[in-house]
Amino acid sequence: MTDAFQLSSPNTLHAPNGYSHVADVRGGRIIYTAGQIAHDPAGALVGKDDLRAQLLQIFTNLKAAIESAGGTFRDVVKLSYFCCERVASADLPLVRDVRDQFINTQAPPVSTFVFVSRLVRPDWLIEVEAVAVVGAAER
Predict the structure, then answer these.
(1) Residues 70/134, Cβ–Cβ less than 8 Å
(2) d(CA 128, CA 83)
(3) Which of 60, 83, 98, 109 sits at 20 to 30 Å (Cα–Cα) from 72?
(4) Model pLDDT for residues 51-80, shown as the tens digit of each residue
(5) Beta bridge partner(s), residue 115
(6) Where do the domains of the chain lie?
């Protein structure tokens, strides 16, 4: 828990696996990122047909976006994933493997994961957006 928010999972809901059910924002600034895709700073695609490589670039991009607003990944309260349905279910553990290199796994963010028929560009396998709460609650 920080002064700005608390992540929790009440025992009146099923036990989550790798995420929290509730993000209780109590103060601070709310930072929304655009959906991030696997483009490097020069705009080139990273990891054509490689989910792990795309995820690493996406989470690196999210980290840079959050840091530009004065936050860190410990401030992330919500992640939303938009994954192409052509990604094999067997590859989905890669999402958590990469995500866990960036987030606080002891208090994982609230998350939503949806499959979509396609993203804007056919080479994109997944897009991820984040919501972070930066700064302590006002007293």
Answers:
(1) yes
(2) 8
(3) 83
(4) 999 999 999 999 999 999 999 999 999 999
(5) 83
(6) 33-132
Element (H, E) at 53: helix 51-68
110-116 vs 76-84, strand pairing mode: parallel
Q: Does domain 33-132 have CATH number 3.30.1330.40?
A: yes
Cβ atoms of 128 and 23 within 8 Å: the answer is: no
Tokens 């052509």 correspond to 86
Q: State residue 2's pLDDT score.
A: 65
Beta bridge partners of 81: 113, 128
Helix (H, G, I), strand (E, B) or coil at 115: strand
> Minimal CA–CA distance to 80: which of 100, 66, 62, 94?
62
Q: Tokens 């054509």 label which residue?
A: 48
Task: Give the mean pLDDT of the chain.
Answer: 93
| Residues 6 or more apart in contact with residue 92 via CB below 8 angstroms | 83
SS3 at position 126? strand
Q: Which amino acid is at 109?
A: P
Q: pLDDT tens digit string along 7-20?
A: 999 999 999 999 99
Task: Say whether pLDDT at 1 is over 90.
Answer: no
What pLDDT was estimated at residue 135?
A: 86
**Helical segments of 46-128, H only:** 51-68, 93-99
